[in-house]
Amino acid sequence: MTSPPTRPAIRAEGLTKRFGKKQALNGVDLEAAPGTVLGVLGPNGAGKTTAVRVLSTLLRPDGGRAWMAGHDVLAAPEAVRRDLGLSGQYAAVDEKLSGRENLYLVARLYGFGRHAARRRAGQLLSDFDLEDAADLPSKTYSGGMRRRLDLAGALVARPPVVVLDEPTTGLDPRGRADTWQAVRSLVAEGTTVLLTTQYLEEADQLADAIVVIESGTVVARGSAAQLKARVGGERLSLTVAEPRHRSTATEILATLGEHLPDLDQRTGRLTVATDHGARSLEYALSRLRLAGIVVQDVGLAPPTLDDVFLSLTGRPIAPDGATASPGVAVVGGGAR
Amino acid sequence: MTAVQRLGRDSSIIAWRNLLNLRRTPGSVIAALVQPVMFVLLLAYVFGGSLGGAEYRTFLMGGIFAQAVTFNSAFTALGLANDMDKGIVDRFRSLPMPAMAVLLGRTLSDLTMSAVTLVVTSLCGLLVGWRISASPAEALAAYLLILLFAFAMSWVGAAIGLMARSVEVAQSAGLIWLFPVTFVSAAFVSPHTMPGPLRTVAEWNPVSATATAVRGLFGNPPPSGLPTSDAWPVVHALPYSAACAIVITGVFMLLALIRFRRITLG
């Protein structure tokens, strides 16, 4: 069922979609080779879900073309659906049905006979550690269990292409780790995965190629390493005790490498990207001590999505800051 | 498997899921069953006394059947709007099955619901003195006609549910038209006493025709004091009501499908 290795399993060219005044997609190109993970990274409202809905045949784009598993999304949606598993924000589970009934229903609609559907549902319940709650209504499930059920639903027909729309948004660290493991085993079996996420770390962990989108436009693409190289390896940030020392401290941090330090006017915190991690930290602290500057607190952290966006677009991602860190529950919402 | 077999199979799977959902929300099922029972009791004993007593209670049931299945269309509107809102429709549409199966599954499960409503309403009718005075074949034909009409009304509900922009809109829009449509009719009274244009509307109303045809098939004559009309749809109630149900089904099925394909893809 998979396309030949030379043909991309997922491909989109110049997708556009407008909802009223909002240009949700503004010429998006995507491509993923068979058996790889394509990470679509972006803040809330960037157009990730709109792109997913177009690729999953749920939404007609205004312009552009797309192919999934070699089938034209617009010309042959039925063929795409046979080869596609969708999970995420919009492919909901039926709350009134049990986990088993949900999976049985999906299997039947993929064309399984009664017996085969029952067997496949049982298998997935055990694969996704849902056996204990298999016959309880899914509305009693925890957020993590519901996501696992949803993911299991996407894999019922062992599709060659799987689309996961923000599969870990709102999950606790354990739930996130479980989902990552599930994605890794899918890829190990040769499945192509398109994954949208707000978390750089997630894209970093899972994706072979990353596309960063904002306001419906691709602002960067490459591997995690390539993207990180563009924003600098890590973030060194510190606060000096005396505000009058800020300009001297800024000059010292500027000597760490090619990246320019950034001063947060509100908190007085200085941040600079560095490619040398702890060595930069030691160096900066000794230079500051020599200059007689007292440092209040200091830290070294990997770049966040915020940093990627700041670096790529020159502005922070979202005014509401709701997307800054993992573990922030995002309930529903988004463009329909 | 042919396309028709496929549609039948997938629709019945979706109808199974809808019925399972209904079984787990007994509140809404009970509400659906209480409503016609309430109308039977209200009309039979509050209005019935001055409209012909026992004779009126026999006459009433044809109208109640037509009204009850019309009201069930609100379930179709609400059910579809809910499924769209909760992302269930997206889940279905991402699966390899015909778009029509989502809609047909819904109208078929609501048809089952209407059949249950008819059983309960008939039992209630028997309690207030309604009787079938016709052959079993005629009685069967009466029930089939009501179900055909129920199916048509369900498609009207489907179109409303798909046009509504939210569940709340679907709920109120799905209900509001039911009152004028079922009351400006011959369901409970004779259109004869209505002012001119209203009388014409009532005479041509498919609810009137269905109620009148069903009364004919069940052998339930109008009360002796009730004026009868000789307007064409009244005289030809049976063919007219069947034709209405078929035309309404066709038109609203098409509208619903066009709308559905605009919302989702292909």
UniProtKB/TrEMBL annotation, chain A:
It is found in: Cell membrane. It is a peripheral membrane protein. Residues 10-240 form the ABC transporter domain. One of its GO terms (biological process) is doxorubicin transport. SMART domains: AAA. It comes from the Bacteria. PROSITE patterns: ABC_TRANSPORTER_1, ABC_TRANSPORTER_2. Keywords: Antibiotic resistance, ATP-binding, Cell membrane, Membrane, Nucleotide-binding, Translocase, Transport. GO terms for cellular component: plasma membrane. SUPFAM superfamilies: P-loop containing nucleoside triphosphate hydrolases. InterPro entries: AAA+_ATPase (IPR003593), ABC_transporter-like_ATP-bd (IPR003439), ABC_transporter-like_CS (IPR017871), ABC_transporter_ATP-binding (IPR050763), DrrA (IPR005894), P-loop_NTPase (IPR027417). Belongs to the ABC transporter superfamily. Drug exporter-1 (DrugE1) (TC 3.A.1.105) family. PANTHER family: ABC TRANSPORTER ATP-BINDING PROTEIN (PTHR42711), DOXORUBICIN RESISTANCE ATP-BINDING PROTEIN DRRA (PTHR42711:SF19). This is ABC transporter ATP-binding protein. It comes from Streptomyces griseus subsp. griseus (strain JCM 4626 / CBS 651.72 / NBRC 13350 / KCC S-0626 / ISP 5235).
TrEMBL record, chain B:
One of its GO terms (molecular function) is ABC-type transporter activity. Coiled coil: none annotated. GO terms for biological process: response to antibiotic. Residues 27-263 form the ABC transmembrane type-2 domain. InterPro entries: ABC2_TM, ABC2_TM_bact-type, ABC_2_transport, Nod_factor_ABC_transporter. It holds the Pfam family ABC2_membrane. One of its GO terms (cellular component) is ATP-binding cassette (ABC) transporter complex. Keywords: Antibiotic resistance, Cell membrane, Membrane, Transmembrane, Transmembrane helix, Transport. The chain crosses the membrane at residues 27-47, 59-81, 102-128, 140-163, 175-194, 237-258. Belongs to the ABC-2 integral membrane protein family. This is Transport permease protein. It is a multi-pass membrane protein. It is found in: Cell membrane; Membrane.
